[in-house]
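To whoever is on call:

I kicked off a structure prediction for a single chain this morning and the downstream step that reads the tokens threw a length-mismatch warning. I double-checked the sequence; it's 195 residues and nothing unusual in it as far as I can see. Pasting both halves so you can look.
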Amino acid sequence: MVVAYHVIITAYGFWLPNDERGSWSDFVRRWELLRFGPATKVETTRNVTHRPYSAALRATAKRALMYRPVIFDGAQALCISKGFADGVRRSGFVIRACAILPEHVHLVVARHSYKIEQVTNRLKGSAQRYLTEAGLHPMQDQVSGETALPSPWAVGLWKVHLDSPEDIRRAIDYVEKNPEKKMKKRQSWSFAAPC
């Protein structure tokens, strides 16, 4: 029985739907991006980041996106954390661990009455609202006029079902150590309540 999830939500443009290493996408939404290949959906919970790929092809494909890929800075990460905290407060989600990195976020989330996709959508929406209200939305300089700001998040999520206390502890440990892989300090967020 699933008791929690290890979730990764990515910033817009971080992981393309047709990445050579695989993706969680069923289709490529943008014609300009489709010339780099069809969606590369993989049904796996295993990490595919280690698979070989062409960095040059990936960089060229990213230039075909409608907007520049999002890379969150420290002020934006703090704002995202406030949005997540508000989402937790409003919905009663239980987050066991969180790491907010420049291009993606790792979360360990306890099972809730909402599907995990709904949980992450609410958290992303809350974070976007906080970024917008603080004037820190990473795409605000790319949209003019009265057009609504696009989401700084990619569509969907990557998830692993956790069905034992050992799985949860292992996922928490992974998430807590993850910033160190990017030469950043471990993070401690007030809304994250470890087991």
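Update from on-call: the warning came from a stale cache, not from the record. Cleared it. Sanity check on the structure: Strands lie at 4-10, 95-100, 104-110, 158-162.
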